[in-house]
Amino acid sequence: MSPEPSQNGDEKPQKPLYELLTHTLVDIYVGEENFHYPLHEKLLCYHSPYFASIFYNKSNSSSRTKEYGLPEVDDTVFGLFVGWLYSRALRYPEVESDIGPLLDLYFLASKLQIVALETDIVDTVRAFYHNNETYPGLRRVQYVYANTDEDNVMREMMVGSVARFLALSDSIPEHWAKALKKNGQLSVDIIRSIQKWHLEERNVPDARDASVDRGRNTFKGAVGFSAVEGGSEMEDVKEESETEDGHVNGNGAA
User: pTM here?
Assistant: First the structure.
């Protein structure tokens, strides 16, 4: 559970739940079928500046009717949000397919401006991949890129994981090579992530030095960068494979 940030960016002490469960309720209607969620107004607005701007704004009709609709939001994802709202806890993902709903919840948290929930989700997703010694697959990364802006913590965590996976691999899997050629921003972000490692010069091979290996290793019969650029199918790379759920298995996680 992450502390809530204050207006000036400092952490503010958490109010106990019982102080936020006042008599006033608001009615939130979610999804195309208007699934109804009656929620405690003070609790909801305490955690979400988005809702506070709606229900605490006297010029807004919702502040009088105590009703608000989110037809574009999936009711299952909103249900996950409600669970977190009243417990301040997330269910740890048992399998990689559980990451998908967590990412959707993350995008909802961004919309509702709930930084603490965003942080909890990033920490949970990070812990899952680390504890299972796997990496996020291409589809997961592309999904995050499609739904976030450049300066985003989840995107940074995902691309940092991918940078490590690629740096420790013998070649670039073919589908990753194609994606990196098409998505210049992803390629740039991977380089930025590697730069943040602040590697010592002595640990980085110098291609200008004739006495060291200049990267033209033989891999499955291919010589030089042809083995890197063309890559191979993920399942052909030693001890690594991308599952149907979209994550990468490997023994390189620390």
Answer: 0.80
Give DSSP secondary structure letters for 43-65.
Answer: HHHHH-HHHHHHHS-TTSTHHHH
User: By C-alpha distance, which of 217, 215, 165 is closest to 194?
Assistant: 165
Indicate the pLDDT class of residue 210, thresholds 50, 70 and 90: confident
Query: In terms of Cα–Cα distance, which of 41, 47, 42 is closest to 25?
Result: 41
Encoded tokens for 96: 């990689």
Contact between residue 153 and residue 116 where contact means Cβ atoms under 8 Å apart = no
Give CA 101 to chain center in angstroms: 11
Residues 6+ apart with CB under 8 A from 83: 89, 91
What is the tally of helices (H) and strands (E) in the chain?
A: 12, 10
